[in-house]
Amino acid sequence: MKIMEKRLNLLQIEPEAYKVMRQFEEYLSGTQIKPLQKELIKIRASQINGCAYCLNMHTKDAIKLGENPQRIFVLNAWRDTVFFSEEEQAILALTEEVTLIPDHVSDETYDRALKVLGEKTLAQVIMAIIVINSWNRIAITSKTLPEQD
What we know:
By secondary structure, the protein is mainly alpha-helical. It is built from seven helices and no strands.
C-alpha cells in the first residue's frame, strides 16, 4: 500500500484563503439547494476528482442526513438507475460537466438544468459545484487524507 506524505497545511499558511472558502461554504447553506442535493454534488464531484478526503467526509454527512447508502453506492452510475429524481439527475449531469470542464457544459445539460431548476437554483448549483471542486483541489494538492474511524 502506498503511503502518502501530507504536504503543507494551507490552513496554517494561508488562513485568509481558508476563511474565504468557508464563507463560500456558508453562502451555500442559505441557498435553495436541499442538503442532500448538496451532498450528492459533493460526492459526485469528489468521485470524478478522486478526492478520498472529501468522499469520506461527504458520504458520512449524507448518511447522517438520511441518505440511502444504496444511492451512494451507485452514484457513479446514476444514469443506469431509477434512484434519482429528475431534479437530482439534472444536478448530477451538470456536476459532471462542470467538473470535467475541458469537455465543456453542453447546451442540452445546461438547458435541462435551467428548465428543471430555474435560474436562481441553477446559479446556486453551479456555485456549489465550483466550491466542492475547489475543496477537492485543496485536499488533493495538499495530500489531505481521510481519518479512519
